[in-house]
Automatic annotation (TrEMBL):
Matches recorded under Pfam families: Mannitol_dh, Mannitol_dh_C
Listed GO biological process terms: mannitol metabolic process
Family from the record: Belongs to the mannitol dehydrogenase family. UxuB subfamily.
Domain of life of the source: Bacteria
Entry keyword set: NAD, Oxidoreductase
Protein's name according to its UniProt entry: Mannitol-1-phosphate 5-dehydrogenase
Domain Mannitol dehydrogenase N-terminal: 29-283
Entry EC no(s): 1.1.1.17
Organism the protein comes from: Knoellia locipacati
Oxidoreductase listed as a keyword: yes
InterPro entries: 6-PGluconate_DH-like_C_sf, 6PGD_dom2, Mannitol_DH, Mannitol_DH/Oxidoreductase, Mannitol_DH_C, Mannitol_DH_CS, Mannitol_DH_N, NAD(P)-bd_dom_sf
Catalytic activity: D-mannitol 1-phosphate + NAD(+) = beta-D-fructose 6-phosphate + NADH + H(+)
Keyword Oxidoreductase: yes
Length: 496
């Protein structure tokens, strides 16, 4: 057994890939907020690939953790010299492990917020990247404006400009660092959002500028005028690392890694080229550099991400627990393809260079990969951040255009049924959502108010005012209670 560290890289089995470059020559150029599985399977992987080609050695990543739970990542990375194993899971059962070395440091902000600020202010830091989840941008779902009500944000807004006091949030760190760089005459960094949001760079810019203006109007204007926020689309299914994954890496390859990351073979990154202070040559390792990311973003959000929501609640209620189980079921596969073809795709602009027929079929194949073992519980989590961004716009567009929306209505009804917190066997469901109490209360009110779930305009906008949609929703919700998820789905598909 080899315990992963810089000193043991040479002891790894031959079939385990490892950095071909001298990690001591890698210097920081990127600070990343939100080091989870996806970042490590995607951005960190692309940079490691560049470094293996002898490029981007001045673009090492310094990870930053903000939340109490991030102390676990701090400890894992510290023990392993910031190395981790990326395990690609192929559909035939083949595992492809590779040690990633592009992360050069990990800072747990509560330990030393000053160290985080110092790194952000350092002229060598030219990109600040983000995977802080959809909810991490604090967007009011109705108005689209910045919601500053979070107590941590309020504390950061109250910080004095004399350097006393330290920020706690991503917003606080980014804006304070921008202020200090301006005062020191250091060029501003580029902020690169890698979250699943339409126009993620535009959203990051709008929210960060709004935060900066609340702190100092003139500073906000400066951030808006001087900080670049490129849009990008990112894609790689990356389930939560399980103990089985850790054990399999040890048993199969003899590698002891406290926190490896597993993913599917497929990966995509479409990036807008807007980096005034430079960027790594990502195009050399397959990143698509384009002028307009929006068509690719919408394709991914409305087909892949929305389809994940289409399968997760109905699948869970039907007794499945993994995405591949659902996608391998012909009934569900037909439902998903029908949603993508007849509801999701008609709302998309032209996507240059993409054959949507091929893309849709490819998605079903990816969902059905039995080795990835993506849990439905993961896909069902934080629905109040996901459904409003991924599915509600599809429904609204189809209602306006006179298009189909019935399958989407069933997805919303299945979320409501799932959010009641009890499955069809009477067993409890652990609902994971930052608005859990609010969502569950609305879902459980259906016996006395069948539209209670739709009344939350923060999540559904004006959908409750659409009689065709509410009629379909109510009928599906009733059937889910009376007949169950599978029978409801069978009835819908048999009548298409």
């Amino acid at each position: 057994m080899v315990t992963l560290s810089q000193a043991t890289l040479g002891d790894l089995p031959a079939e385990v890939g490892r950095p071909a470059y001298d990690r001591s020559s890698v210097t920081p150029g990127i600070v990343h907020f939100g080091v989870g599985g996806f970042h490590r399977a995607h951005q960190a992987m692309y940079l490691d690939a560049l470094m293996n080609e002898g490029e981007a050695l001045d673009w090492g990543i310094v990870g930053v953790g903000l939340l109490p739970g991030d102390s676990r990542m701090r400890d894992a990375m510290a023990a392993q010299d910031n190395l981790f194993t990326l395990v690609v899971k192929h559909p035939d059962g083949h595992l492809e492990p590779r040690v990633i070395g592009s992360m050069v440091d990990y800072l747990f902000a509560p330990d030393d917020p000053g160290a985080v600020l110092d790194r952000l202010v350092d002229p060598a830091t030219r990109i600040v990247s983000l995977t802080v989840t959809e909810g991490g941008y604090h967007v009011n779902q109705v108005t689209g404006e910045f919601d500053a009500n979070d107590p941590v944000l309020q504390a950061d807004l109250a910080l004095p400009d004399n350097g006393e006091g330290m920020p706690q949030s991503m917003f606080g760190f980014v804006v304070e660092a921008a202020r200090r760089r301006r005062e020191a005459g250091v060029e501003p960094f580029t902020v690169m959002s890698c979250d699943n949001l339409p126009g993620n760079g535009d959203v990051a810019k709008k929210m960060i500028v709004a935060f900066a203006r609340l702190r100092d109007a003139e500073l906000g204007d400066w951030v808006e005028a001087n900080v670049a926020f490129p849009n990008c689309m990112v894609d790689r299914i990356t389930p939560v690392t399980s103990q089985d994954d850790i054990t399999a890496l040890a048993d199969t390859f003899g590698v002891e890694d406290a926190w490896p990351v597993v993913c599917e073979p497929y990966t995509q990154w479409v990036l807008e080229d807007h980096f005034p202070t430079g960027r790594p040559p990502f195009e050399d390792v397959g990143v698509q550099i384009v002028d307009d990311v929006v068509p690719y973003e919408l394709m991914k959000l409305r087909l892949l991400n929305a389809s994940h929501q289409a399968l997760c609640y109905l699948g869970f209620l039907s007794g499945y627990r993994y995405a591949h189980e659902v996608a391998q079921d012909p009934l569900f596969a037909g439902f998903l393809l029908g949603y993508m073809e007849e509801e999701g795709s008609p709302t998309l602009p032209e996507v240059p260079g993409v054959d949507l027929n091929v893309y849709r079929r490819q998605l079903l194949e990816r969902f059905a990969n039995p080795e990835v073992r993506d849990t439905l519980a993961r896909l069902c989590a934080e629905s109040s951040d996901r459904i409003p961004k991924w599915l509600v716009p599809v429904i609204q567009a189809n209602l306006e255009a006179g298009g189909q929306f019935e399958r989407s209505a069933l997805v919303v009804a299945s979320w409501a049924r799932y959010a009641e917190g009890v499955d069809e066997s009477g067993e409890p469901i652990e609902v994971v959502d930052r608005h859990k109490d609010r969502v569950m209360a609305a879902a459980r009110a259906w016996p006395t108010d069948e539209l209670a779930f739709l009344r939350d305009s923060d999540f559904f906008g004006t959908l409750i005012d659409s009689e065709p949609f509410t009629t379909a929703y109510v009928a599906f919700l009733k059937s889910l209670h009376d007949n169950g998820a599978r029978a409801t789905l069978e009835d819908l598909e048999s009548n298409r």
